[in-house]
Amino acid sequence: MNRPSTDPVALFEAAREGKRLALARLMSLVERGGDEARVLGAHTYAQAGAAYTVGMTGAPGSGKSSLAAELASVVRSEQQRLAILAVDPSSPYTGGAILGDRVRMQDHVTDDGIYIRSMATRGHLGGLSLATPQAIRVLDALSWPWILVETVGVGQVEVEIAGAADTTIVVVNPGWGDSVQANKAGLMEVADIFVINKSDRKGADDTRRDIQQMLELSSLGDWEPPIVMTVATDQIGADELWRTVAEHRSYLEESGELQARRSLRVQAELTEIVSQSLEQRVITTMESSETAELKEKLARGEIDPYAAAARLIDLSDG
């Protein structure tokens, strides 16, 4: 039996032909990073740009995975295809997103129109802040028209990943906490749509009022984030949410903001790549024998920290 190719371009072409194993290997390659991932990135960059990405973030237990499964059903009812990336920036070992999503989305695992992938940092330079946009780009180049990125929590990294989408959905529950916590998490800045999931519970109306008050106090542009009420486990509200996503997409396209957002994202990605590359170079330099000598001189007071740092920068440039 022939072993499957490990060449990034060959894998990409196999995935284009509909081979799911090749696609899975591509995603693993992206997560690992390295030279092969860079080859893949160069190959797919010019072919991407048609897909629309939706980010979804919210506290653990807010029902994001159940809601994502319901959105998948809505998308498929419209005869469209959807790829779902379930991202766990915290650990490659927790498995929470992996196991949870597989259980909740079991109705879709045999559907060729749905692709589900759980991602966790596995050595990619820059972690998921760089692996995620590249994974999106690969799926985009493979002609997946809709890509949903679901993150596990609402920490800074999770918010950044979800906010790297065209439309960002923030999922909360009744009694979600005060506005200070929300603003600390950066949710008000990234939210294009708010969802109050489990809205059949007590306090849903109060939560809606709290969000509305925060929005009124915020500096919003022409788009004011709508608030959608859902009960994902009872299949309530997913249709309305998907219509709201479509409305936001139309707004972005007609206003020209979609292209502006995407341009800013690519620039941010470039900055992150340069920053991470320079950091890696510095780490390598810090392990050199000359660095050890500099540290000894610094400890003896023979050189000041700024002079030592300047010397290290010279070494890294060399």
Provide an overview of this structure.
The protein is of the alpha/beta class and 318 residues long. The chain folds into two domains: 49-255, P-loop containing nucleotide triphosphate hydrolases (Rossmann fold, 3-Layer(aba) Sandwich); 270-317, no CATH class. The chain has helices spanning 8-16, 20-32, 35-45, 64-77, 96-104, 128-141, 156-162, 179-184, 187-190, 204-217, 238-255, 257-286, 289-300, 305-317; strands spanning 52-58, 82-88, 114-120, 146-151, 167-172, 193-196, 227-229. Helix 5 links the parallel strand 2 (82-88) and strand 3 (114-120). It is globular and about 70 Å long. Mean pLDDT is 85; it is low at 93-102.
Q: How would you sum up this structure in a few lines?
A:
This protein is an alpha/beta fold and 318 residues long. It has helices at 8-16, 20-32, 35-45, 64-77, 96-104, 128-141, 156-162, 179-184, 187-190, 204-217, 238-255, 257-286, 289-300, 305-317, and strands at 52-58, 82-88, 114-120, 146-151, 167-172, 193-196, 227-229. It has 2 domains: 49-255, P-loop containing nucleotide triphosphate hydrolases (Rossmann fold); 270-317, no CATH class.
